[in-house]
Amino acid sequence: MKTIISTRLDLSIKAQKAFADASTEAIIELAELIIDTVTNGGKLLIFGNGGSAADAQHMAAEFVNRFLMNRRPLPALALTTDTSVLTSIGNDFSYDMIFVKQVQALGSSKDLALGISTSGTSANVVKALATAREMGLATAALTGGIHPPTGEIAACTDLILNVPSDATPHIQETHLWIEHVLCELVENAIFGN
User: Fold this and answer.
1) Most distant pair of Cα atoms in the chain: their distance
2) Cα distances (angstroms) measured from residue 30 to each of 37, 92, 138, 168, 181
3) DSSP state of 135
4) Which of 45, 159, 174, 191 is such that its CA lies 20 to 30 A from the CA of 145?
């Protein structure tokens, strides 16, 4: 058990370090995109599946409530929380449309759509990002994999922050680290230290 704990800790740190070394400028770029969005009257629409759905909710809560400082709420929505909306769209249309219809209903060209997909290939995340781009929203994605994603998600996303790992747990741990860093950067930029 001690070996598993030690090994997993080392691999998680390695994934976070590899991402930070390769993507510091991308983190700053996404932070600036979020800052521009919320200071210009837009909101953040965040979505993903499974652990990424939990991340979407966690990140939205940090923006709406607080991260490290008491300040006014920042507009962010997790499109993963309304079971009636999710199940009605999934039942009446398809699971691939659960985020698309919400982006259509709630999104505006002032907003930023942030999709979270450890694989970078989740159909419902990709379709929602494509819809957001068609509607004029800024788009960004948190993904994972040894090679940065190409294809559909790359075609509809302004900015991809890819964790260079094939281990889903370490990708998700790094995503949470990224989300916390983004929250801190945004808070500091808008509200001061």
Assistant:
1) 51
2) 10, 34, 10, 22, 11
3) T
4) 45
Query: How far is the C-alpha of 42 from the C-alpha of 159, rounded, in Å?
Result: 18
Q: 90-99 pLDDT, tens per residue? A: 999 999 999 9
Strands 112-116 and 138-144: parallel
CA distance 73 to 64: 5
The Cα 128–Cα 122 span in angstroms is: 10
Reference 32, options 182, 191, 193; nearest CA is 182
Tell me the one-letter amino acid at 127: K
Residue spans of the domains in the chain: they are 2-191
Angle (CA) 29-31-32 rounded to 5° is 65
Of the CA atoms within 13 Å of residue 173, those in its CB half-sphere come to: 17
The domain 2-191 having CATH identifier 3.40.50.10490: the answer here is yes
Q: What is the pLDDT of residues 133-177, one digit of tens each?
A: 999 999 999 999 988 777 899 999 999 999 999 999 999 999 999
pLDDT at 23 over 80: yes
Cα 187 to Cα 38: distance, rounded to the nearest angstrom? 11
